[in-house]
Write a structure and sequence with these properties.
Elements (H helix, E strand, L loop, with lengths): L4 E4 L2 E4 H25 L12 E2 L20 E2 L10 E5 L9 E3 L9 H4 L5 E5 L9 E5 L4 E13 L6 E9 L5 E3 L2 E5 L15 E10 L2 E11 L6 E6 L7 H5 L4 E7 L4 E6 L2 E7 L4 E2 L7 E3 L14 E3 L16 E3 L16 E3 L11 H4 L6 E3 L16 E3 L11 E3 L11 E3 L15 E10 L4 E9 L2 H10 L1 H11 L3 H11 L3 H21 L22 H27 L5 H30 L10
Antiparallel strand pairs: 1-2, 3-4, 5-29, 6-9, 7-8, 8-29, 9-28, 10-16, 10-29, 11-13, 12-13, 12-28, 13-14, 14-15, 15-19, 16-17, 17-18, 20-27, 21-26, 22-25, 23-24
């Protein structure tokens, strides 16, 4: 840019046109921002392949009513139908507990009053349902034991097919302390669903659990020790993701466990992987024990020295080491300030204080006036007995201790010797677990109205994904359609947490303000006509001004050439007239040169510059 014109291919753009372009860019950016904010209010429900029914209230004929806001689109619910091969599927849309068995047992080891599994189960719609007709299994009771189970269509055997377990959970009233996990019950000859309790053998336990601020997502499987035949629980590592939102947002979430024959596993929430690993390397305790263990009978020798440093036994305390020297001493160079009032106390009794009328000296003791600062000490450097200030004692060394040196007898930290593990085994296929024949919920919860829905046990991902699309996909679309827009959510959040207004200002208003300043403000150029002749330095002549001067100089040279031609034509009139003309021409040339210098000086002066046209 040069002053008020911008050089572009093919010509110049004036400052006015440049400012207009900036304004247009600002308006365009603001329009894009508004469009993005408004786009958040629209919910795309076409991906779920659902039908939207718009219930619009028509105005009564003949009445002029104010335009009303159209209602939220409603999602038409259709019960999901399982496709392909599966082991268990239930959507509860028939409204009954057919196929499910309520436990009639009692829990052992606790008080008789709470030992019964008498927690209530119901099949009903969610409290704030967005899908009319969508029902699920609801845990209704608080502070009670609940147990319910159902048989699989066929037993699942862990061989060459993966296992996929999937179901939905909604904590409708939040969750304080309790679980919503599912158990896959082991196939045993004595399995009786009427006696389903916490000690009933299971193969896998999977699902959410929370108590206090501990948010968990369990994946536990019971592994059989091939040497002893005993079962031990193996817990998956804790996921890195923050699980808090899934317990507090009161939305329906889809929990999925995928267990593959190659011992790998995946845990998904809402079809997003939040944890994955391998049964051989990512379980605690490990599936296979260590080949060597510490000898339990080995003991540390009495003369074993574990000290890496010891005091130097040859060190001697220096003779001039004074252990009794104090750390602080009085400053002998200090001088009492002039005007110090030694005889005046810092505080005196308040002369205006009056003994209260209800003061009882027998009960309250002798009355004394309250102490106030001494008025005389306000103008003095200090009052009371003057004492020298304390300073660090340069001769203080403290108690002498021998220096530390490397221990020549250091043997390292003692550890018991290693011996072969008598219980060692190597199971390279922990996926081959005990077969499962039933699915059950055995829970204790301090919260009620926990909603379960759309259980699925299968081996094919396509079956599970289609089941999720037809069930959970509809819930997600319906909940999304009923959600308020982005602006409304931000406003409601700010009402609950006022400090969010500061965040909004920093993230929204500040960038807009900076954009406005960048686009709409600029350095004002001072017109050349406004310059005054002063002793202050003036800006250098620009390239454009030089070009104009070159053009003017070129025109003057052309005028000189014409004058010279005219002079040559007049030479033929005679030698005398020629000499006179030559003399006159020399005078004229001298005058022209002086005039050119004066004109050049005037042109360079800012005072004589003409305002440039846009």
């Amino acid at each position: 840019l040069t002053r008020d014109r911008a050089v572009v291919p093919g010509g110049y753009i004036s400052a006015l046109e440049t400012m207009e372009l900036k304004w247009r860019m600002c308006v365009l950016l603001l329009a894009l921002g508004c469009a993005v904010a408004l786009a958040q209010d629209d919910v795309d429900v076409e991906d779920a392949d659902i039908e939207l029914e718009d219930d619009i209230n028509e105005a009564v004929e003949g009445e002029e009513a104010a335009p009303s806001t159209p209602p939220v689109p409603k999602v038409t619910y259709q019960p999901p139908i399982p496709s392909g091969d599966f082991y268990f599927a239930d959507s509860f849309d028939e409204g009954t507990l057919d196929g499910w068995v309520l436990s009639k047992a009692k829990k052992e080891g606790i008080d008789e009053e709470i030992a019964k599994y008498d927690g209530q189960w119901e099949v009903e719609e969610m409290q704030d349902t967005k899908l009319l007709g969508d029902k699920g299994l609801v845990l209704k009771s608080r502070a009670k034991h609940h147990a319910i189970s159902a048989k699989l269509r066929k037993t699942f055997v862990f061989d060459t097919k993966p296992l996929i377990v999937q179901y939905e959970v909604n904590f409708q009233t939040g969750i304080d302390c309790g679980g919503a996990y599912v158990k896959l019950l082991s196939q045993t000859p004595d399995l009786n669903l009427d006696e389903f309790v916490d000690k009933t053998p299971y193969t896998i336990m999977f699902g959410p659990d929370k108590c206090g601020e501990d948010y968990k997502l369990h994946f536990i499987f019971r592994h059989k020790n091939p040497k002893t035949g005993e079962y031990e629980e193996k817990h998956a590592k804790k996921p890195d993701a923050d699980l808090r939102t899934y317990y507090t947002d009161k939305k329906t979430h889809l929990y999925t466990l995928v267990l593959n024959p190659d011992n790998s596993f995946e845990i998904l929430i809402d079809q997003t992987v939040i944890n994955s690993g391998n049964l051989l390397t990512d379980m605690s305790p490990a599936v296979n024990p260590a080949a060597e263990i510490e000898d339990p009978d080995d003991q540390k020798p009495e003369d074993w020295d574990e000290r890496p440093k010891i005091q130097d036994p040859d060190a001697v305390k220096p003779e001039d080491w004074d252990e009794d020297a104090p750390a602080k001493i009085a400053d002998e160079e200090a001088v009492k300030p002039e005007g110090w009032l030694d005889d005046e106390p810092e505080y005196t009794s308040d002369p205006d204080a009056i003994k209260p009328e209800d003061w009882d000296e027998d009960m309250d003791g002798e009355w004394e006036a309250p102490q106030i600062p001494n008025a005389k000490c306000e103008t003095a450097p200090g009052c009371g007995p003057w004492q020298r200030p304390m300073i660090d004692n340069p001769n203080y060394k403290g108690k002498w201790k021998p220096p530390m040196i490397d221990n020549p007898n250091y043997q390292g930290v003692w550890k018991p010797r290693k011996i072969p593990n008598p219980d060692f085994f190597e199971d390279l296929h922990p996926f081959r677990m005990t077969a499962i024949s039933a699915v059950g919920l055995e829970l204790w919860s301090m919260s009620s109205d926990i909603f379960f829905d759309n259980f699925m046990v299968c081996s094919e991902r396509t079956v599970a994904e289609q089941w999720a699309k037809d069930g959970w996909g509809l819930k997600k679309a319906a909940e999304g359609a009923a959600e308020p827009g982005l602006v409304t959510q931000m406003m409601s959040a700010a009402e609950e947490r006022p400090w969010l207004w500061v965040v909004y200002i920093l993230t929204v208003a500040l960038p807009v303000f900076l954009l406005f300043v960048f686009c709409c403000s600029g350095k004002k150029k001072t017109s050349d006509a406004q310059y005054k002749k002063t002793d202050e330095p003036q800006p250098d002549v620009t390239e454009e001004e030089k070009e104009e001067e070159d053009k003017e100089n070129g025109e003057e040279e052309d005028d000189k050439e014409e004058e010279e031609k005219q002079g040559e034509e007049k030479k033929g009139d005679g030698e005398e007239s020629q000499e006179e003309e030559v003399a006159e021409e020399e005078k004229e040339e001298d005058g022209d040169k002086s005039d050119e210098k004066d004109d050049d000086i005037l042109r360079r002066s800012p005072r004589s510059r003409k305002p440039r046209k846009d």
